[in-house]
Amino acid sequence: MKTSRVVTVAILVLVVLGAAYYGWQRYAAPEPVAEPVAESAAPPPAPVASAPAEPAIKYPLSAIEPPEVQPAQALPALAESDAYVQAALTELLGKKNVLTFLQLDGFARRVVATVDNLGREHAPPMVWPVNPTPGRFSTRGQAGGETINPDNSQRYTPFVLFVESVDTAQAVRLYIRLYPLLQQAYEELGFPKRYFNDRLVAVIDQLLAAPVQDAPVAVSLVDVKGPVPSERPWVRYEFADPKLEALSAGQKMLIRTGPVNHRRLRAKLLEVRKLVSGAAGRPPG
């Protein structure tokens, strides 16, 4: 599938200030008698619209695990956090899995950028916190066009098995422990007044809304004009159905993994969503 080479981060303008002015009217007495000029009372100042309130935090992590029960461990500076994060990930996932599946340099920044990008049109692989899936995207000829090859889903099976093997509760505890680094990375990305956990939940909800495709998914090869033929034509496929092609980058990735993997990853996303949103600990009703 095609990916974009350029990512644009739009910085929202939260406050617009306006100005008001006050007028005075002067009245003079009739000539020839000179009378003191009377000055009318100044009209009350026009009401000034209050600045928009800061966005409310919808899913505060303190509601999931209060600060007093979080591990009191000082975190390194974001720019110097790679070794610390690698040690924490190795403890949770094991050295082999970490080296096989993860991109460890700038891991906190990679996580934040990728989560945000998954909810947008493009999620460039160069900032992923995971290694790209080995092999290449494959299709199968069908009457009237091409569809995703059912065997293509096998490429994703090792990663899906890895995801399923992770203890969700322990992973979320590590997420909470590392959260100050992630929040700082999110602010540096261009969202100084936003809460990263809210963005995470919003993107998970978007991924959960991706429609599982049990039938063969039709794709088409994007025609690129030019004198030099593409050496990697398989990255230029897109969904033939405009509704599927209009989905976010993360939703399209889930569909490409195949219906079985899609459902398995969806189940894991539901587990994570319950914990990072605090839903798992809320009383029913």
Tell me about this structure.
It is a single chain. With about 280 residues, the protein is α+β, with helices and mostly antiparallel strands. It has a domain at about 75-225 and about 230-280. Helices cover about 35% and strands about 5% of the residues. The protein has 9 helices and 6 strands; from the N terminus they run E-E-H-H-H-E-E-H-H-H-E-E-H-H-H. It has a 4-stranded antiparallel beta sheet with strand order 3-4-5-6. A two-stranded antiparallel sheet has the order 1-2. Helix 6 (about 195-210) runs antiparallel to helix 9. It is globular and about 60 Å long. The chain starts with about 25 loop residues before the first strand and ends in a 9-residue tail after the last helix.
Distance between the termini: 43 Å
Unreliable stretches (pLDDT < 50, length at least 5) are 1-40, 228-234
Strand order of the largest sheet: 3-4-5-6
Strand content: 5-15%
Quick one: biggest sheet? 4 strands, antiparallel
Overall radius of gyration: 27 Å
**What spatial form do the alpha-carbon principal axes imply?**
globular
How many individual helices?
Answer: 9
Secondary-structure element pattern, one letter each = EEHHHEEHHHEEHHH
Number of strands: 6
Report the average pLDDT across residues.
Answer: 79
Share of helix, binned: 25-40%
**Which class of secondary structure composition applies to the elements?**
alpha+beta
Features of this protein?
about 280 residues, alpha+beta, 4-stranded antiparallel sheet, 6 strands
Q: What are the SSEs and their pairings?
A:
Elements: E1 26-27, E2 38-39, H1 82-93, H2 95-101, H3 107-118, E3 139-142, E4 145-148, H4 157-165, H5 168-189, H6 196-208, E5 218-221, E6 237-239, H7 242-245, H8 249-256, H9 259-276
Antiparallel strand pairs: 1-2, 3-4, 4-5, 5-6
Helix pairs in contact: 1-2, 1-5, 3-5, 3-6, 4-9, 6-9
